Amino acid sequence: MNIDETRSNRELRSEIREAASKGASVEFKPAKESMTYHFSLRDWSPSGLGILIQKDSDILGFIEVGQEILLKFHKGDATLAPEQLKARIRHISDPAGGRHPNHLIVGLHILERISK
């Protein structure tokens, strides 16, 4: 990781992050996979989303840092249509402080809002 990438990660993390509302989630189908995966949203900021994935989930074999994905972002209100987003996987890491055992945090950087 170069200095600019480190600085960029730090700047993204300095944004105010909010806990996701109940029912907020994302779904996406990784390239070369036939199944769509659905995950509860952990937190969000204006330019990113955080999701929790179990360490033994099959999806970890289909995603990697730097990969771009198309996803549906469900804000938690069933009356709202999901928002279509293009995102890049920024990191796949262990939760801080031992929280969420047996899970990894996947940070998604929003590149483009395709529809609202």
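(ticket continues) Second input and output from the same batch:
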Amino acid sequence: MIVVLILGILATASVAGYRQYIQRANRVDATSALLRASSAQERFYLQNSRYATTADELANPPPGGLGIAGTERGFYDLAVEPAAGGAMLGYTLTATASGTGPQRDDDCQAFTIDQSGRRGARDAGGAQGAAITDRCWR
């Protein structure tokens, strides 16, 4: 009976660790989509003298859009917003964990990148900061 108890404790600990590992690995779905979209934004800017700032422009194929409707595996929802000064000056791309996907319970809930390549992240509690960004983007 003691052996079964010890095996149960070890199994519980290893399953929790494995789940965290899988969630961290799945974050690549968000970060790679944001980096791909950021690169596409620069191509869009060269052709249109402004950045794409609507959901339609995000999803439509070039030259009228970026051709990136979502993340590759669908774990995150993509959105784009113009910078405070407008679409000619910049944008912020955001990847937010899908409410129905495997990342909904992940501590890193949202990732951002802007026209300057500045990265950001928000945890499940809504907190942001350099430490959270470093942990989530690694």
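Agent notes: Helices lie at 2-26, 28-48, 55-59, 130-137. Strands lie at 76-83, 86-97, 108-114, 119-123. Closing as not reproducible unless the customer responds.
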